[in-house]
Structures are given as C-alpha cells and as structure tokens.
Amino acid sequence: MTDTPQRSRPLRVLAAMSGGVDSAVAAARAAEAGHDVTGVHLALSANPQSFRTGARGCCTIEDSRDARRAADVIGIPFYVWDLADRFREDVVEDFVAEYEAGRTPNPCLRCNEKIKFAALLDKALALGFDAVCTGHYAKIVTLPDGSRELHRASDLAKDQSYVLGVLDEQQLAHALFPLGDTVTTKEEIRAEAERRGLAVAKKPDSHDICFIADGDTQGFLARRLGKAEGDIVDEAGTKVGTHEGAYGFTIGQRKGLRIGTPAADGKPRYVLDISPVNNTVTVGPAEALDVTALTAIRPRWCGAAPTGPGTYTAQLRAHGGETEVSAELVDGELRVTFTEPVRGVAPGQAIVLYDGTRVVGSATIASTTRAKTAATV
C-alpha cells in the first residue's frame, strides 16, 4: 500500500480555491507536481455581501479576489463559477429544513457531498478535467489494484476526513488532497504560503457557517422560519419554560435554555429531545443524554460496502474524538452499538466509521437509544 499525492502521469486538475491559505497551497503543490492546473472559485451566493465579510476564507467578494491573486502568483488560469442556485437548494434549504424537522445537520459535509464533489466534479469531468483538488486535510491511499482509500490526514490535529466521509469510490477516484499526504502542520502551511509569495499566508481560517453572515444560527433560522412560541418541559412533562422556536435548540444543549424553574437537585439541565410536531423541547439531567446505540440512514461508502457485522471506531462531530462501536448494515440502514455510552448525539448528524485511519463510510443519524430509559429518540 503506497501513499500517492499525485498519479504517475500529469493530470488536468481543477483546483477549488476558496480564497484561503489551504486551498491556495494545495493548488500550488498540484502545479509544482507537474499537473495542468486551473483554479476556480465557487460563487455560492447570489449576493456575496450577504455571506461572511472579512478575511474568513469562504464565499465573499474579497475571497474571490484573494483566490484570483493566489492563482496569478502560482501562474495558473483562474475562473469564477456561479453555483449559487445549487448551493442554495442543496445546502442552505436543506439546512433550514433539517432544523425545522428537529434535526441537527452539518452543512459543510453536505457542501462537500453536493457541491464540491458532485456539482463541481461533474462539471469538471464534462470539461475534460481528470480530478478536483481541494485544500482539505485528508489522505488518499492507492492500493496495488488501483483502487483508492480515504484516510485521516497525517496531521491529526487538522484532519478533515469526517466531512469527506460522504465521498464514494467514484468521487475518490477523481480527488486530490495535496495537504494530507505529508506530515504538515497549519503553521508549516502558512510558512510555505509565505515562501511562495501568497498574500493569504496570514489570512485567518474560516469558521462557523459561511452563509450565516453574523454567526447567529438561531437568528438566521428565526428569520427563515418565523418565531413559534412553545413549551420547554421536563422528563415528566411539566412545563418549566417557553421558547420562541424549537428549531433553535440542539440535543445536548445547556446554555440559552432560559428555564425559570430550577431542577429539584439543583443540577444543570440539557436538551434531551426536540419535537417539531408539538413544538416542544424536553430537558433533563446530563446522564439522560447517554446513548448506547443508534440507527443511521442513507449510508455512503468510501469503497465497497461492509458485509456482516464489524468493529470500528466512529466519529460523531467534525471536531470530536473517536469511540469504539460495532456496526452492521441491515435492510439498508446502519445499526450501531457503542462500547461505552456517548453524549451529544442528535438525529441529523453524520456518523463516520473508521478502520484504523481508513474512512469506511458515513450515514445520517435517524434515531438513538438512550441508556437511562432504554427509549428510542
């Protein structure tokens, strides 16, 4: 098994350039490796000023200009592609609909699946490109038979394989991740960018959600869905407070509950359940969040689908740790049992399975089984 930052022959590569330092260095490395590279910035908003402003590395007019300047320094052609309609439908509207249904989506994962490695890749292949290059920190390993695997990045502190767990075998065959194939820290990436004369060397990383300009997710959802006052209840169904929209809460949330009645034991309470049907939020003690098993739907495999039950590690959040699980595909659904109970697991989130550093695949959490009540949420 060998790590291959590039194939044996030069490729026609479309480098997705967000305007940040990672994608700029990735494009530069691809060009330096001898590939025929063209840079492209994705215009994801019909009104870019409605997205984040400042040096955030995604989705603004300023970012488009930063990407163009980086392409000029690298010496590659550069274009801006308008994917605003597709982004709005597949990412923004999906995000709103998921929260409205009481689930907790990951828009970055959806963007990778639907935009960068579906809409963008499809267009790239149609235009005769061989691969799409991004600045993600992940590693592609090529096996002796030519098949490819997705692995964690060498720098685990920057690993982004979780948000790439939606990529299938065909998409991996046309992907390049130049930053993940060597032991490279973010500090080294910035130093490399400076050596290459890229003005984005010191540009801050992008954080949070690119299409929520002020970072206020609850306010964004309120503007889209409207205020809808409802009850906050405890496990017994007793009203302990009110809210202005159940969509503004996530499973495991502690802050911002605005509960007027304290718990009998004086301990903090957490969101246990969100019911969009009756617009009710249920709260309770931390131990009631312990999840022992879950069912996930719409599995996507980074290669062949597993056969029979297996033991893996699982990651449940983009910046979360790994936990040991047993998992099996049953009637198209992924059934997962945790070796030790975990908390903060919410329907709508993605679970990504790993075999060592290899990404096996991902699925969307549909329901969970709690340890305290042995009830399915």
Automatic annotation (TrEMBL):
Binding-site residues for ATP, renumbered to this chain: 16-23, 42, 135
UniProt site (Interaction with tRNA): 136, 349
SUPFAM superfamilies: Adenine nucleotide alpha hydrolases-like
Catalytic activity: S-sulfanyl-L-cysteinyl-[protein] + uridine(34) in tRNA + AH2 + ATP = 2-thiouridine(34) in tRNA + L-cysteinyl-[protein] + A + AMP + diphosphate + H(+)
Annotated keywords: ATP-binding, Cytoplasm, Disulfide bond, Nucleotide-binding, RNA-binding, Transferase, tRNA processing, tRNA-binding
Major localization listed first in the record, in broad terms: cytoplasm
Keyword RNA-binding: yes
EC id: 2.8.1.13
Domain annotation tRNA-specific 2-thiouridylase MnmA-like central: ranges: 219-284
Annotated spans, Interaction with tRNA: 158-160
GO cellular component terms listed in the entry, alphabetical order: cytoplasm
Top EC class for this record: transferase
Gene Ontology terms for molecular function: ATP binding; tRNA binding; tRNA-uridine 2-sulfurtransferase activity
Gene Ontology BP, a term: tRNA wobble position uridine thiolation
Superkingdom to which the source organism belongs: Bacteria
InterPro entries: MnmA-like, MnmA-like_C, MnmA-like_central, MnmA-like_central_sf, Rossmann-like_a/b/a_fold
Coiled-coil blocks: none
Compartments reported by the entry: Cytoplasm
Active site (UniProt): 111, 210
Residues annotated as domain tRNA-specific 2-thiouridylase MnmA-like C-terminal: 292-365
Family designation: Belongs to the MnmA/TRMU family.
Record's function text: Catalyzes the 2-thiolation of uridine at the wobble position (U34) of tRNA, leading to the formation of s(2)U34.
Name of the molecule in the record: tRNA-specific 2-thiouridylase MnmA
Taxonomic source organism: Streptomyces actuosus
